[in-house]
Design brief:
The chain is an alpha/beta fold. The longest helix is centred in the first third of the chain and has 17 residues. It contains ten helices and eight strands. Helix 2 packs antiparallel against helix 3. A six-stranded parallel sheet has the order 5-4-1-6-7-8, sandwiched between helices. Strands 2-3 form a two-stranded antiparallel ribbon. The chain starts with a strand and ends with a helix. Helix content is 44%, strand content 15%.
Length: 234
């Protein structure tokens, strides 16, 4: 029996050591513009472009800022986006234990990543931390034109890695856990350290505070379902 295991990226395997607002402020700091107002507009248009799976979402978001604020004749949305994306990647860090869990699972199981976001940016994060070399497949929403929790994305994941069973590990209850469960995956819900506002994890087959806990499945509260024991208990 073969079990394919997919992981979410942001919030599950990696995170940021600076806030998005701080990174944006650094990008526009050389220019005399109202940062708070520009940031609100930038975030609104970036999230909209990502939700629509549009190409070049960062450039599109900066286009709206450039049209409203004077950055100077030599500044373009493309140059701002490139600068900001590089800064954002530099601010990413892998979550404690994530690389080890990924390596352990990939040693015995077909392994992949399903992530919402821009293809170039998400793949750059994976390459930056060497995570791309540890998995068999990477599915990015903006490359496929569909976002989690849409069933089409999870169906594509199954087609990419044929197996008898499927497991998904993620930190977003609606996008990751509910979406994967409805597609026939068993799920591991990564709640994060501050889980005071976490929804009732009824859809999850297992719950951990951080992905690194899966290095020692015996420490996970409750018992893991058999298929998860086979994956993480080896």
């Amino acid at each position: 029996m073969t079990t394919a295991v997919y992981f979410d990226l942001d919030g599950t395997l990696c995170t940021y050591d600076e806030s998005f607002e701080s990174l944006f402020r650094q990008t526009v700091s050389p220019y005399d513009i109202p940062t708070a107002t520009a940031y609100d507009g930038y975030v609104e248009h970036l999230l909209d472009a990502l939700d629509r799976c549009e190409p070049d979402p960062y450039r599109r978001a900066f286009e709206t800022i450039v049209t409203k604020h004077d950055f100077g004749a030599n500044v373009t949305p493309a140059t701002l986006a490139a600068d900001h994306c590089e800064r954002e990647i530099d601010a990413t860090v892998t979550i404690a234990g994530a690389t080890q869990v990924l390596e352990s699972v990939a040693a015995t199981n077909p392994t992949g990543i399903i992530t919402n976001g821009d293809g170039d940016q998400q793949r750059a994060k994976l390459e930056c931390h060497g995570l791309d070399e540890r998995v068999d497949e990477v599915l990015v929403s903006n490359e496929l034109g569909v976002r989690k929790p849409d069933q089409e994305l999870f169906a594509t994941a199954k087609a990419r890695l044929p197996a008898d069973d499927y497991v998904y590990v993620g930190d977003s209850y609606e996008e990751d856990i509910v979406g994967a469960r409805d597609a026939g995956f068993q799920t591991v819900y990564v709640t994060g350290a501050d889980d005071s506002d976490v929804e009732e994890p009824a859809a999850a087959d297992a719950v951990v505070e951080a992905v690194g806990e899966l290095r020692d499945p015996g420490s996970v509260p409750g018992s893991l379902p058999r298929v998860l024991e086979d994956v993480f208990g080896s």
